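The following record pairs a protein chain with its ligand, 2-acetamido-2-deoxy-beta-D-glucopyranose.
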Amino acid sequence: MVNTLQQRTGTTLLVMWILLAIVNLIYTNYPNFNPIKMLPAPKNESSFNFTILLYAPPIYPKNYYKIDFLKKCVFHNCKISFDRSLLRYSDAVIFFYKEITFKPPYKFPNQTWILTNFEAPNFKSPGKYIKYFEFDWTMSYRQDSDVYVPYGIIKESRIHAKKNYSSIYAMKTYDVAWIVSNCKTKFRREEYVEKLSRYIDIDIYGKCGWNSCRGSSIFQCKQRLSKRYKFMLAFENSLCKDYLTEKIFHLYRENIDIIPIVRGAPNTEEHLPNNTFVLVSDFKSPKDLAHRLKTIGGNETLYTEMLKQKDKYTAFSDPNEETGIWGLCRACQLLNDNYQSNKTMDIAKWLSGRSCILPSDL
Ligand SMILES: *[C@@H]1O[C@H](CO)[C@@H](O)[C@H](O)[C@H]1NC(C)=O
Ligand SMILES: *[C@@H]1O[C@H](CO)[C@@H](O)[C@H](O)[C@H]1NC(C)=O
Ligand SMILES: *[C@@H]1O[C@H](CO)[C@@H](O)[C@H](O)[C@H]1NC(C)=O
Ligand SMILES: *[C@@H]1O[C@H](CO)[C@@H](O)[C@H](O)[C@H]1NC(C)=O
Ligand SMILES: *[C@@H]1O[C@H](CO)[C@@H](O)[C@H](O)[C@H]1NC(C)=O
Ligand SMILES: *[C@@H]1O[C@H](CO)[C@@H](O)[C@H](O)[C@H]1NC(C)=O
Ligand SMILES: *[C@@H]1O[C@H](CO)[C@@H](O)[C@H](O)[C@H]1NC(C)=O
């Protein structure tokens, strides 16, 4: 009886703590991705409204953009709408790149048109209608977007848990895990993994492998595997500038004691802290990489130094992967600030594959 009560109190406290942590993260991070720069105080909220119209939202996943999303923003005076008949009354209009399959509607004066894209450019040229659109802002994972919406951000960790790295290391009896669901990619991810697996053991989880990792989410699966494995592949499906997804940021969250092996954006080093990951492009061949992994993985000092370094950081990636909220909150802030983009962007170029490289590691 006493035990149960204690457990219940403990659980309640834990849940409250987690909620507080999430609220804290939302309020400190959604609107501004530079943790150092603080937000200006919100302007008088009740005195103006902005409507952000998602004129061409992505088809996937259903109900992804919830009407009350913007409640979580620092600025509460924006609302989103999906009702195209409100075009005339909309302050900002969002078009997802992939959904632009029509000629532009009438652009009302003082309306901000936002071109949005969260997927890697895939060497396909943009659709034929896009050139008729006059966009004012871009919103994407690219750092040069007006509304920069990364899949995650790395911050210095404020939690300094004392861990027994020796015992963490001792638990790790396996080398490399890979969780993957998209089996064939243009950037020959699977081919690289196949070659790497000739030199070091790789266990493949998910749709493309033999092992299944049960858990209510991919993140929980990663957490479980991180206890037994030394390394986890964080291989993006594309090798494009700034394109780092939750595949990578997940592994920087708290209590994931695993070293990521990253194959992704050519400028990955700009986004991740030094000596906390292994970068595939540093190696001439899968064989060389495997050799290095064995050196690190076989040397407790070397390996745990990396873990310790990684523990100095944490990633804030949206807990529900609702990357869209960040973007909309940020867009709302920029509307409030009457932000004027001064970028002259070649949209077609920006969207085409020219920010991507072909793999040279095979
Ligand atoms: C904000 O707006 C409300 C209603 O329009 C007004 O009563 C209040 O004085 C304003 N506050 C500030 C700080 O301007
Ligand atoms: C803001 O929106 C509310 C509700 O939609 C409306 O009643 C109010 O008049 C709007 N205020 C302004 C300044 O447009
Ligand atoms: C556009 O905005 C400017 C400045 O905010 C304002 O002076 C102008 O009247 C607006 N034009 C229209 C058509 O709303
Ligand atoms: C850490 O774990 C190792 C192996 O599990 C154990 O031998 C050692 O005593 C532990 N060290 C501390 C400081 O608890
Ligand atoms: C990261 O590490 C490399 C090699 O260890 C070093 O050359 C580079 O200066 C470091 N970069 C930063 C930002 O510390
Ligand atoms: C392990 O790595 C450390 C740090 O680089 C090095 O000093 C040590 O000699 C290595 N141990 C072995 C057994 O190679
Ligand atoms: C564009 O705006 C940024 C800040 O908003 C400013 O630092 C930069 O100098 C501007 N560039 C041009 C070409 O006006």
